[in-house]
C-alpha cells in the first residue's frame, strides 16, 4: 500500500491565503494549491508562469508586475487571465507558494 | 490529500466578525484628459482586474482624448492651476513647461513599469475590462466611432452606462 497518497498533510496559510511558510512549497503542493484555488490541473503554460515568477521572486524579493511577466514569460495578458481567472497576480503567487505581490501594476 | 488551514484556524480562534463583502464590480469614469488625470483611473481599472474584480471604464468629456487614436499618445501634464505641482502658475504657463513636465512624468511612470497610455488601454482591455465612450461628448465634439482606438467597445449613453453598472461601485475621476 502506498502511504504517500493517503497521508494527510496540514499546510498553514496566511490571512490572505498564501503559504505561511514558503519552504513548505514543492511541485506537488503547487497542484494542491491550484485545486484549492479552483484553478484545476496545472498545464505547461501554468508552469511557465509559476517558474518565471518564482525566479523573479528569488532575484527581487517580490513577484513581477503583470507587464513584466507578459513581456518576459511569453504568456499574453489574455492567456494569463484565462490560466489564473479571478485575479492572476494573486492566484499565480499563491500557487507558486509566494506571498501577496506588493506592486500596483 | 492536503488540508489547508489559516493561522487563525490553526490557533483554534474563531473570527469575531464576518468579513465585509468584497467588491465584485467597478465602473470607473475618466472625465479629464491630462496625463496625470487619466492614469489614476487606468491604474484603478487594471488593479481591479488584477484582484479579480470586474471593471468597466467610461470615458467622457476631455477624458475621451485617452482613447482617441490620434491623441492618446500625446497626452500632456497640465502645469497651470495645480498648486500641488509646486510650479507658480505664471511659470507653468511659459512655453515648453508642459512638455517638460510631461517628459519627466512619463519617465517616472516607465520606471514603475506602468505602460504608456496606448499600451495600458490594450492591456486593460485584454484583461477583460470593457471600455466605452460617452455618447453626449462624442456628439458635442463631432467625433465618429472611427476616431477611437480599436479597444473601445462602443459609444453609449449615460443611461446605458448605468445599466451596465448594475451592481457596480461607480468611481468618478
Parts with pLDDT < 50 across at least 5 consecutive residues of chain B? none
Helical run tally of chain B:
7
In helices, the fraction of residues of chain B equals 25-40%
CATH architectural name of chain A? Orthogonal Bundle
C-alpha Rg of chain A, in Å?
14 Å
Question: What is the terminal-to-terminal distance of chain B?
Answer: 48 Å
Report how far apart the termini of chain A are: 48 Å
What is the molecular shape of chain B? globular
How does the overall form of chain A come out from the CA principal axes?
globular
The CATH topology of the domain at 25-76 and 116-172 in chain B corresponds to Hypothetical Protein Ychn, Chain: A
Oligomer: heterodimer
User: What is the C-level CATH assignment of the domain at 25-76 and 116-172 in chain B?
Assistant: Alpha Beta
Kindly report the CATH topology of chain A.
Answer: Arc Repressor Mutant, subunit A
Biggest sheet descriptor of chain A: none
Amino acid at each position: 500500500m502506498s502511504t504517500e497518497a493517503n497521508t494527510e498533510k496540514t499546510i498553514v496559510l496566511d490571512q490572505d491565503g498564501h503559504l505561511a511558510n514558503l519552504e513548505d512549497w514543492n511541485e506537488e503542493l503547487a497542484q494542491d494549491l491550484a485545486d484549492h484555488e479552483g484553478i484545476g490541473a496545472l498545464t505547461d503554460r501554468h508552469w511557465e508562469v509559476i517558474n518565471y515568477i518564482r525566479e523573479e521572486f528569488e532575484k527581487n524579493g517580490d513577484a513581477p508586475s503583470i507587464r513584466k511577466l507578459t513581456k518576459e514569460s511569453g504568456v499574453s495578458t489574455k492567456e494569463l487571465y484565462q490560466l489564473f481567472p479571478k485575479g492572476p497576480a494573486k492566484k499565480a503567487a499563491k500557487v507558486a507558494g509566494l506571498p501577496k505581490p506588493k506592486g500596483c501594476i | 490529500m492536503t488540508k489547508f488551514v489559516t493561522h487563525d484556524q490553526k490557533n483554534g480562534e474563531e473570527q469575531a466578525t464576518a468579513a465585509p463583502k468584497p467588491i465584485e464590480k467597478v465602473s470607473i469614469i475618466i472625465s479629464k484628459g491630462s496625463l496625470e488625470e487619466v492614469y489614476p483611473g487606468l491604474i484603478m481599472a487594471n488593479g481591479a482586474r488584477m484582484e479579480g474584480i470586474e471593471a468597466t471604464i467610461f470615458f467622457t468629456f476631455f477624458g475621451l482624448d485617452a482613447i482617441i487614436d490620434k491623441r492618446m499618445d500625446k497626452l500632456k501634464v497640465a502645469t497651470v492651476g495645480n498648486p500641488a505641482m509646486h510650479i507658480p502658475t505664471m511659470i507653468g504657463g511659459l512655453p515648453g513647461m508642459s512638455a517638460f513636465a510631461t517628459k519627466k512624468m512619463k519617465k517616472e511612470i516607465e520606471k514603475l513599469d506602468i505602460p504608456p497610455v496606448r499600451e495600458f488601454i490594450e492591456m486593460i482591455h485584454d484583461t477583460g475590462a470593457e471600455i466605452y465612450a460617452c455618447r453626449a461628448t462624442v456628439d458635442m465634439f463631432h467625433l465618429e466611432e472611427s476616431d477611437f482606438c480599436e479597444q473601445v467597445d462602443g459609444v453609449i449613453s449615460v443611461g446605458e452606462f448605468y445599466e451596465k453598472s448594475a451592481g457596480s461601485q461607480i468611481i468618478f475621476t
